[in-house]
Write the structure tokens for this entry.
Amino acid sequence: LTNEVENSLEMQAQEVSELISRELNNHINTLATIADINDMTSIDLNEQTQNNQEILKDLFVTFISEADTLLNKIKTSYESNDHQSAKDLTHALKGLSATVGASRVYDTTSQMDALHKKEDFKKAKELFPDLTQRYQKVRAIIQERYN
């Protein structure tokens, strides 16, 4: 009987250890992405969709599709010196990123938007590579979560 109790306790200890490890990894992953996807927005979206994962997936897949298109159009606008289009498209991406909580994309598009309003298109254009890099990171996080 003593061996059975010891084995049972060892198994319980192992299960608890594995549970703690899993939860710790989940929190580490959340902390690693918190700067890229705002957790409060994620919580709000979960509440608004009643935690319907299909709706959330559709929202984020649509975000990726729209953001890909907007980024390509922004790039083309800068290449052709179409400042008004670059301004409008950047503003649209800013709103889209705010909706899904893509905070670093939102921060960069906000900076670009402010520069466009000051008609400093050169500095706004200089932020485009940073925007692209930040978006790619968010895109990877979303694809990992919803694919």
